[in-house]
Fold this protein.
Amino acid sequence: MRQFIHGIAENNHYQATHLLQILRQIQSRYHYIPEAAIEQLSGLLSIPRTQIISVIEFYSFFHLTPRGRYELLISDSITDHMLGKKDLLDYLAKKLAVAVGAVREDGLVSLENTSCTGMCDQGPAGLVNGYALTRLDRSSIDKIVELVNQQKPLDEWPKELFLVNDNIYKSGLLLDRQMEQGAALKSAFKRGVKATLAEVDKSGLRGRGGAGFKTATKWQFCSEEQQSVRYVVCNADEGEPGTFKDRVLLNSYADQVFEGMTVCAAIIGAKQGFLYLRGEYLHLYDKLQSILNQRRQNGLLGTNILDQGLDFDIEICLGAGAYICGEESALIESLEGKAGIPRNRPPYPVTQGYLGKPTVVNNVETFLAAASIAVNGGDWFADIGTEKSKGTKILSISGDCARPGIYEYPFGTTIQTVLNDCGADDVLGVQVGGPSGTFISNQEFDRKLAFEDLATGGSFIIFNSSRNILDMVHNFTHFFAHESCGFCTPCRVGTSLLQKQIDKIVEGHGSAGDVVALEELCQLVKNYSHCGLGQTAANPIITTLERYPDLYQNRLKEISYEPGFDLDGALTTARRMANRDDAGAHLAQTDAFGSRPVASLPPSLAVGE
Amino acid sequence: MSKTITIDGKVIPFEEGQTIMDAAMAAGVYIPHLCHQPEFTPHGSCKLCTVKVNGRNCSACTFPAADGQDVLNHTEELIEDRKKITQMLFVEGNHFCPSCEKTGNCQLQAVAYHLNMLDNHFPLFYPDREVDASHDEVMVDHNRCIFCTLCVRASHEKDGKDVFAISGRGIHKHLIVNAESGLLKDTDVAATDQAAHICPTGAILIKRTGYQVPIGQRIYDHQQIDQVSLATEHPKHGE
């Protein structure tokens, strides 16, 4: 092992910034990070062991104790649940003879839930040793169980288990045609770098991650910083449940994305770029590396690009299972080999980003659009869309519809148009923008996709009238509690409190006052959290409570007080200690009038009161 | 003419490079805080020092003061919400003041008194946390840790060591120490380290010094934390 780890560290030039990439390889080889590896890395990278442990314990894909040689993770997105995930997971656990969250006794296989893997249009989905599994059903699960038990290496598993489709159903301005390799760079150099920035400005392009900051302004700010070193970062940490368009763009339009990054580098004066690829998209890694190599061979990356004196290259860095790394400053921390904890702002990344240097971070789709704008000019883009939202938006559509997949629409398109196109009827509502976005009811389908109305990073999950909205709220609320980085009090404690409070209501333990308490907590988490995660974590509750207050009220018991936990269950230890289990040693949850807990224990053993 | 901000209507001068917290402290305005100590790099995590700057919530300890800012600090809404944030800190750990050696000297307790916190408000988490009494002179009671990272920063910035770090994610966050065994006795911590004395709660204590000052004669027994803070903490000056 010593030699193996030394080799990895050497390949990573003993750089602590590569800690995630190093740990990924160790996890992949040993299925955990052994103590000896931590000790050795601490020396090789000259960082305290605590820094390595804090990174391991931060990311879902790293472990301090051994996982199975086959690490099976099943996606826990609401869309997987809508496709029957729960039954399948139970079936899989039974067939494999391993509990969810555990490692089988022989150490061969472990099974666990994981946050949305970005396969919502072809779920239920999962990961085996990091590689995406799609369209899981009982027959493919039978096959997987057999392959695991036979200890077949992954590269001998049938390819159809790993088949990932693009499912592009509607293309527009950006997806209509593939750009010729180098076309955007040639246009940009021909027009001039400054003039190209002016075209991006004219296009009105705004960031496609959801926040919508004007792209040209960001590039301009970065280029004006008095620093010689600058960086370009492409945010491909597509973690918002229900979003998968970046996976498709990187699968079929990667050249254009890289080209957009290179145009940005030419404009701001960067020599190094990074593609931060979410760990769940490991299956794209080799393909993307070969595209980068091809671009280097064709003089589109490396030194003196197209003989224009531009030196620029792109490195791919993989994430390791942390939704928060989609937040740009957390992403930068992660790129630096640390836990993905959002920074205090100001300073913003354009002034102090990666390694403290000015850095542009943009979404995959933003770079794709920028490359097209470099070729076709700003007007071409700005002619489409609305006043404040120019161009098109690529949607990831999933949930209850006939054709889940990728759809490109001009901004300003109504929700109803989208629903008609993807074959959705009997619709109850749509979650626009993922869990951090907005739930809209079927009374609002004339609303429009636009920064002025419904802003979205692209997630579009459809629910028909057979669905229970509270199931969705429950799933989303648990998701945020799981993904909170824990840095600030309101989000760390607040998202867990939201989870407890929603569980209490959904499970029927809520009573008068519990919805008011829930609302109050939502506002606290929203108003005081450090970053976008906490500020939007209560959105699923806030937006549904606003539209369907009865849904929540109806779950409440008509009593003034209801214990939030199982009173009788809490007495188990006391019963064991007293060595009795007669009727008198049990406690009813409430009395006949439902007003307060009833103790049937003798006074000496009774609790409360 | 020097640059100024207003806090609750009061005009306060500041120097370039100062945060709102620095400017407020220098002017004798107390903003509640737990993870902040002026001599360490601001962290901005406890969120008790949240103030409204031109209508937007910001952490006073990290947000730079800028000319003309209209800052709200002592409002009913902010006081009420800071109290709830303090209650969150109480319920997430195991804080039983009457049985804690730090009582009366504890900043968490003092802030709670200052904000008139009379109950926990939220359901208690009752987390299962350990006490590390392995070291001869210093002990860590994880039940009382609020993840302010002051010990982490003190060890790194003042003691030139890296004894402490925060690990884990979300509600599973926890304090770890720099030793293979995970125990304090195997680290290079010393009772003279600043990190061993900086804890605002009773999570890090020096052994064999307990109760030397009787309860009733402790720091916050007769003074509010705002007076103590303004008298003892010295804000950073501008660049």
User: Anything to note?
Assistant: Chain A has 25 helices and 17 strands. The radius of gyration of chain A is 26 Å.
